[in-house]
Write the structure tokens for this entry.
Amino acid sequence: MGACLGVCSLLSCVSCLCGSAPCLLCGCCPSAKNSTVSRLLFTFFLFLGTLVSIIMIIPGVEKELHKLPGFCEGSGSVLGVQTRVDCGSFLGHKAVYRMGFAMAAFFFLFAAIMVCVRSSKDPRAAVQNGFWFFKFLVLVGITVGAFYIPDGAFTSVWFYFGVVGSFLFILIQLVLLIDFAHSWSQLWLRNAALCIVTFIFYATSIAAIVLLYVYYTKPEGCTEGKVLISINLILCLIVSAVSILPKIQDAQPHSGLLQASLITLYTIYITWSALANVPTQACNPTLLVRNSTGSATATQPLTTWWDAPSIVGLIIFILCTLFISVRSSDHPQVNKLMLTEESAGSAGSEAAAVEGGLHRAYDNEQDGVSYNYTFFHLCLLLAALYIMMTLTNWYRPDESLQVLTSPWTAVWVKICSSWAGLLLYLWTLVAPLVLPDRDFS
């Protein structure tokens, strides 16, 4: 609560956060596009909610939450209001789910409000690009309200919303990764560093595959793990081979092994993350079984509730959301898919960005928005669901609500997303050959 109040007072000190005009920045800051500033501030809200979720699921903090008056069901009330959270089991897990619900509801609200906004001349664009203090209050209000949702079947039902949202966000990550790899390859064309990085990616992937076979399979048994690792290994070899075929190279000169190696490395990570959710202890050395008393047991002592795949997933989440916020693609096809387009701000707008030595965020969307507002908020909604599942390891309570278990659902969703990503990358390679009349430049 203290952290929220601190951020609240920080936001209130900046007068531009309470208005709809382009934000007046301090003299030491460079001028910036209004569209970029808005995306970064919405992303900051997402990161703020993620930070609160991380704090709530830390075991020591989770125990302290029981002591807060009015936080748990039956612990008294605050201002005559009593929450509906049963703190008898998995309090941190439930808190993360409610925080995820609040962030998803917040971004869904703005996605609905911003439908069909075409330029900054639309009155709703002022809501998108201003009134940040009041947006913060809306987010706080939704968050507080989320903790008054009765336990009941909320956690079980919201788990499936998280699964679907996470699957879609993984696909968005793959689109961004493919686009980043293509841009990287063009930048480093005929550069010796390209070969070195490609070698490092493939070497890391091979080492990771060996470790997956060693730790997540057994000579006898663990058939599922062997099959999944082998299938993804074969698929990665196929896309790598296709990427350097002469016809593919003629159609796409910038295509090559750098993109394939990066996609391979990410696919191996997704495979590792999926195997870390296999609910069989003998085939999953990192499996956690947590009962309602809050204790955690595993084959080795664990100092945190998160496992290594979750930490890597958190890092990828941060990078992808920042990528969505600050950059549009260099490729028209990706811009069409992600509904983004770098609109050139008028010369007058850029010239007016510096007035009297003061720098301001100038409006670069008078003739048309540079990104689809609704799609951007839907991306952040999916990101909120993804980070919710990542922080809870994709675990869910059993029917008795006494034990958190890792379901096979999480395994198959991750594996299917890796297959979908490989097929998507394969399509980017063969599309110019299959549809020769279309421009894929």
About this structure: The chain is about 60% helix and 5% strand. The chain has a mean pLDDT of 75. The beta strands are 24-25, 32-33, 289-291, 296-297, 354-355, 358-362, 396-397, 403-405. The two ends are 51 Å apart (CA to CA).
